[in-house]
Every structure is written in C-alpha cells, then in structure tokens.
Amino acid sequence: MASATTSTTLSLLKTTASTTSSSASRSSASLIRLPSTRRHLKSSPLIHSLGFSSAASGDSLLSLHVSSKVRSFKGKGSRGVVSMAKKSVGDLTAADLKGKKVFVRADLNVPLDDSQNITDDTRIRAAIPTIKHLIQNGAKVILSSHLGRPKGVTPKFSLAPLVPRLSELLGIQVVKADDCIGPEVEKLVAALPEGGVLLLENVRFYKEEEKNEPEFAKKLASLADLFVNDAFGTAHRAHASTEGVTKFLKPSVAGFLLQKELDYLVGAVSSPKRPFAAIVGGSKVSSKIGVIESLLEKCDILLLGGGMIFTFYKAQGLSVGSSLVEEDKLELATSLLAKAKAKGVSLLLPTDVIVPASAIPDGWMGLDIGPDSVKTFNEALDTTQTIIWNGPMGVFEFDKFAVGTEAIAKKLAELSGKGVTTIIGGGDSVAAVEKVGVADVMSHISTGGGASLELLEGKELPGVIALDEAVPVAV
Questions:
Q1: 284 is known as an active-site residue
Q2: Does 138 participate in catalysis according to the annotation?
Q3: For 92, how many CA atoms within 13 A lie in the half-sphere containing its CB?
Q4: Who contacts 298 (Cβ-Cβ below 8 Å, separation ≥6)?
Q5: Most buried of 74, 218, 348, 443, CB within 10 angstroms?
Q6: Catalytic: 195?
Q7: For the purposes of burial, counting CB atoms within 10 Å of the CB of 101, is it exposed (0-12), middle (13-18) or buried (19 or more)?
Q8: Is 42 designated active site?
Q9: Which residues take part in binding substrate (predicted)?
Q10: What residue ranges define each of the domains in the chain, with the CATH number in brackets?
C-alpha cells in the first residue's frame, strides 16, 4: 500500500491570485474555458502541477447485515456466496415450484429510442436466469416491471416493446397483458400453462405502486402463490411490487440477480481480498459522502475523481477557478482528509492540472483527470486484489473529457483478467465500461445505480429486508 501512495512534493508557480502548495501524489485534471456564451470549448492548455497531499478518510461503519455463514444457491452461475441472510429462489425445490404461480418483480427498465426499439437490453438479459429457472421447474411466471417515470397510463412507457426480446431470450412466446391488475389479467393468469410467462403492463401506470398502498399490493399478490424479487434496481424503494406484496405472499425470496448483487456489493466489500481499492467519482461530494465514509472503513486505497475533487482542493486553499465547488462542504472535506490520515487509508486525488497558467484561473473548469493522474491511479490499482468503482473521473459524455474515465475502465479490465475482483457499482461507471467495450470481463456489473449506492453507504434496502430470512447451511 505504501508503494502505491508515495507522495512527491510539488509547488505552484506564483500567480496574481494567491495559491497554496503542499505535498502531493502526482496526477492531473484537464480543463476547458467556459466563455460567457458557454458555447465554445477551448483546448490546447498547458500542463502544470497543483500541490496536494496524499490522505484518506472515513468515519462511519459499513453497517450492512451480512450473513456470517457462507451459503450456496442453485441455478446459473451457482457458487458459494457471502450474502444478506435472505432466502433465494435457488433454495426452492422443483416440488415448491411446479404448477405454482410466481409473481416475479424484475427490473426491465431498459432505454428505448424514438421508434420504441430497445437500445440496451442489459437489464432484460440479467433477468433471464431467474425466469428460466422458474419455467424449467414448471412454474407459471407472472412478470412485473416498471419502465420510466410515467404519469398515469402513458403509451410510450408500455412494456409491449420488450416482448419480442424477452421471447427470443427465453425461447418461448411471452404473453403480454394490457394491465397489471383486474379481471382481464386474472383470466390470462388462469390460462397460463406450466412453464409459461405472462408480462404485466407497467406497474407504475398506477400511482399506488410508488405509494406502496396495501390494497394495490394485495391485488398484485392475489395473482400468485409466491414472490421472487429480482429487481435490484428498485430494491432501495418500498413500492407495492417490491415490498408491499411480501405481506401477502409466502415464501418471498430473492432471485439470482438480486442474490448476485448482494454477493458482490455486500460480501466482496465486507470481506474483500486485500489490498482493497475503492474508486469514487462524480460531480458532488454531497452525493457520495455516505459512500466515501463507509468504504473508508473497509478499503486500503481510495481514489477520488470527478467534479468533487475541487471541493477538496479549495478546502486546502488551492485556486480552483470556475470549477465546481460545494462551498458548504469545505469543512467536511477538511475533516474527511484528517480522518483519513488517522485511519491509515491512502487517498489519492488528482493534483496537477492542464491549464494555461500555474493554477486554475477564473473562468476555467476542470473536467477530467489527465495522464499523470491516470499513471498514478494505475500504479496504485496494480497493487490491489479487489476494486470497486462508483462514479466517473470527469465529464465522460464528451469524448474530449472521457480519456481519464476510459483509462480507468481499461485498467480494471486488464486487472480483472489477472484475477483481481472488479466491481462496477452502477450508473455512469457502468456506462463507461460498456462504452469502452470491457463490461463482459468485469467480475460484476451492478444493475442498480441508486440501490448499489445506498447499499455501499450501509443503508438497508426495503425490497431486500422484506424477503424471507434464509436458513444458513454448511457448504
């Protein structure tokens, strides 16, 4: 760990604006000029180093309820897992499933283009193992999901465009209902054969879904004999189809995808192979406070990137120009750095920036980590055995500022090939590894941005807590 965090003293050149120098780990961030019109991007800046110190922080426990036992589950990709102590669909026998109507909450919230074509079927493919396991065991699958954020019945958010792809992946014709409750749905359920799949219409067409109204949950539950929650992406919300139905359906168990998410995001983070590194990016410190604090209770190395770094810069008295700074979080940034040092966790921040002067001048904004940062971060990551990544290193939506984020994605892919456990914790990080084309080689790609974030913060997920407790077994 020490070899990965050796700091080099760098000093700032004197400018008209006062700046501060301190010890630093070598890294960088690239900048653009934001003219008053905000319509043009200025390039060709010079490289200069900002002084900064290597430190780390963390103050709260990763309060996850992790099973002390190692369990195993059956199905695709079955293996021993350390998980939240919840019963899995793999724990159910053929006798438990044959002829039973199973209400499956999946997360099929896939992006569609203007012609209603699926542009990314990742979430559909992720739901397939659980559905296949159920139909192969003679269950009658009643599949529920949301799509988008509809206000009442909204045709463009219908799940109808998903039917062809679902049918193709499952190898059977999926039946589509025009509603998710009511007499017509009940008739379709009654006609469903063993091994058949009925896709209900968007559950969020009813406002009662997100309000978790008991009567609506009861209507959904009345369609089935038991419940399988495989929608990790919505597990952090107590909705009728994720939490409410568990009050009326027993057993209520986790699907394979949900189980895998818990395996990696709880198990691997709570008991990682060391050294364990966490990479946290994003625009604001405020959105990642809980993650930073929780991960620093567990990790050996923390790498920070994205717009949040400038709040840390300013907290140390450095000139940050027009870069994003949360003024009300400066004291927090200072305390995090101090606590990090006390805990002995090595925190690396990008510290030399590409600018036309010796410090970030007014009117310029840092938008990516640069080549020195990539080099330093890569050297640190080379020492690790487990890595979790949540949040981009810059504004990677623009190719000019995607270099740092894409470099991290490629490095994690390289390390994954060498046996390092690599976990991509949802959201923009997933988009980045998919953009680079290395998603398939990562150990785990989380399907839930908000859910993975809350799980990493140590929060309990209502959609998980509501499931039946598992009975630990020896493996």
A1: yes
A2: no
A3: 30
A4: 62, 269, 270, 272, 276, 278
A5: 348
A6: no
A7: middle
A8: no
A9: 107-109, 146-149
A10: 2-61+271-442 (3.40.50.1260), 81-260 (3.40.50.1260)
